[in-house]
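writing this on my phone so excuse typos. first protein, seq and then structure
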Amino acid sequence: MKRFFRNNGLSVVTLGLFVLLWGAQALTGWQAYNEEAQEHDRAVLGLGAYLESGHFWEATGENWESEFLQMAAFVLLTARLYQRGSAESKPLPEDEQAPEPPPSGPPPGPVRRGGWAAQLYSHSLSLTLLLLFAASFVLHLLGGAAEYNREAAAHGQPAVSTLAFLGSAEFWHQSFQNWQSEFLAVGAMAVLTIFLRERGSAESKPVEAPHHHTGR
């Protein structure tokens, strides 16, 4: 177990925190939903029913969508753009040294097969993140439409279709307020790593590295 945690500690801790905090989101969202329902003399929901509600899935999809957009954009942009001095950038072309020898061991299967499999695999990270973004976008849309129609029914207003909700200012306001914050975070990370350090972190340059040093 010690060796497993040493080799996989980052994923174990981050995914464990994800499960813990998603559970906390569900419980607090359930409480907030029922408090609002009681204030308006509407029926409260059990936890199981709440986990199937638009209120829960709208909030979940809205946040997952912005995170996967951030990571997909980060992967694609850092493949093509530079930021002098940033640990989040590849070294500038004039600063690149001789390439390091390839790691020992056999390459992944798609690389060994070559052709279209290798070509697809060479972009598999960004493609997968974009697919996860698209799935989360749909989850946000479906959950948001359900929640919008629940609110509309409570106020005696007609329901709207999922397509109509897609074209609404409400849906895009929810999306844009999350998307802008993700790009702010990426930009802040790119700039702050020029001047600041965190000893031992893979996201930081060495503490002794000059500010103009680019890459990790």
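second protein below, same order as before
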Amino acid sequence: MIQERTSPRARPAMRFVLLVGILSFFADCTYEGARGVLGPYLSTVGASATIIGVVMGLGELLGYGLRAVSGAVADFSRRFWPITIVGYVVQMASVPALALTHDWRSAALLVIAERVGKAIRNPPRDVMLANAAQHIGGYGWVFGIHEAFDQFGAMVGPLVVAAVLAQRGSYHAAFAVLAVPAALNLLFVFLARLLYPTPEEMKTADQRSSHATQRFPSVFWLYVVGAGLVAAGFADYPIIAFHWARGGVLGSEWIPIFYAVAMAVSGGGSLLLGRLFDRYGFVVLIGLTCISALFAPLVFLVDHFVAALLGVALWGLGMGVHESIIPAAVAPMIAAERRASAFGAFTALYGVCWFAGSAVIGWLYDRSIVATVVFCLLVQAAAIPAFLIVRRKLETK
């Protein structure tokens, strides 16, 4: 059970959440700044839509799939900080290195390396945040706070890239500038490690009994199915940006700005959505899935500036759901000692679905934009029955 806000550990737990939020701000500023222009950049160095879809999907596959390994190692070793630090170092080194690439193959390797770094650091970091949530009012609230920092960074990064492109007209210069927030991220990572060397101790006493042999409950696996369908039907921003650039819907300088808009929507809504999820549960996730799925016809079928803006706002809302509510929902299903493994297993299967969906979306786009939109809508709609069953099972526990 979540502890009351009057818990004596509430204040240090909140300080920890805010510090992790700051380092995540600089992380997202770095890699989301790059991801906002990866589609157009990869096309300038010889990549087709299919290649972009496969590269981005493979990055997500490894970026999610390897979390099963990272989570299991974190649960077994209880060395949350060392694993988290390694992940951040790999991720932050990969993004500025894109400034040195001149063909899609070398760029693709760095794109994938960045996702691998994220895979390494996420499960242990999420466990530390979940432990802090025991003292601050709820999983949705804590993950919502974290997502707000994430998406604020994800808004600033693309704006910085847009400014560099407007002034210099060079993708390589934009990637090089991202070395600054990358360095600041690592500075705050080490500061957090110094100030909070054992944040796993923030979990409440009733969670400390051993559950190491406990299997994941059936409701967890059903939830994986629903979340995987949502992931499979969610198009990556690079393929959306590729569509806009190829069709002349937006100029190159507008594409990172629209990505910043999406991140602002995601971050701005995450605090409210986290609160709503803590209060009302899965009905919030179901409603948001239905609403955010409407991004597909707006961004792919209506070649108009305003439609693209509305579509990217809905896409950003969906990203907020992916990054905050969907992982927050995992924590209360699983015993504390298995959470890193649960986060890892969940996101591994989630990533397989994301990869498969991204590859299919890229393949369909090269053949039929209408088929691409139909696929996105139908696959995400198929998740609703699974979420409804999960909701009923949790409410009857």
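The chain has 18 helices and no strands. thats all i got for now
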